[in-house]
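Exercise 7.
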Amino acid sequence: MRVFPLVVAVCLALAACDLVDPEPSTVRPKPATTGKPSLATASSERSSTGVPVTDLGSPGPAGQALAMNDAGQVVGMSLTNTFRWLLWSDGVITDLGGIEVADIDNAGRIAGKCGAHACVWESGATTDLGTLGGASSAASDINNAGQVAGNSATAFGEVHGFVWVDGVMTDIGQIAVAAMNDAGQVVGACGPAPGRACRWENGVISDLGTLGGTSSRASGINNAGQIVGTSLTAAGQTHAFLWANGTMTDLGDLGRGHSEAFAINDAGQVVGYGCWDLCDNGQGHDDMLHAFLWAHGEMTDLGTLGGSYSRANDINAGGEVVGHAFRTGEDNISEIEMS
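Solution. The predicted structure, written as tokens, is:
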């Protein structure tokens, strides 16, 4: 199957929608643009469940949209003979060169990994964020203050979480970092693998618990401190959760016992994917998963582009959702935006 990057713009009220060691900066040459269409010019259609969808296009036969800021800029990847890391902005796709992208903030700064080190890309220049003494590091998220969170090898061969603020990388302990909000709160998974969802704040790590199972992990946090992620239930299923004010809530599924949440915006809208057909005891197969939006207590299937698989990776303040989906009869993935 062919996979396509997409953006889905989802109304805040579904009833209103049709479906209801740091180094100094090193300057690289300005990345070349592909001349391919992006959000402003890409083709629009509807998903299998009627959601308006924009195919972002991709220089290669497959791609994935990974993150989006509130201005609608999207970062992701395309697959030709090798991976290419891309920025979709104002109708233009820009090849970012060697940075493996993870996130983009509202100023257009992109966090990820350059070679073996975490880095930040801004207007064609990259900043090496260094490591915690080991050989490698990678950024997971960047907030709107330009602060970065991620993971790094230490001098003792362990992998620890870090926050990078004003040129200084700080070790925050044994946390597999996934996301950070504008207040500098960091979430991920702590403890021996597979771990438990946790939050780091001002030097203190808090265990967020589980949905009754043995493990969990946090994937996203908004500026209200609401946290989303995935947990095993007491029945052994994998379910998306929302954690707020000390309580973890099961967000349910699309009817087949498996769901995972990846991001939440400040309106409390959650995106991820879940099984729409039989899954292997919660171990969801790619050809049986659909992107979802959870809002106001209801999980909505966002559908696909005619294939059997879609995934929602991020949602911005305007309710636009980015991810990727299979097309019917094609063999790869492409970026999409759902409206």
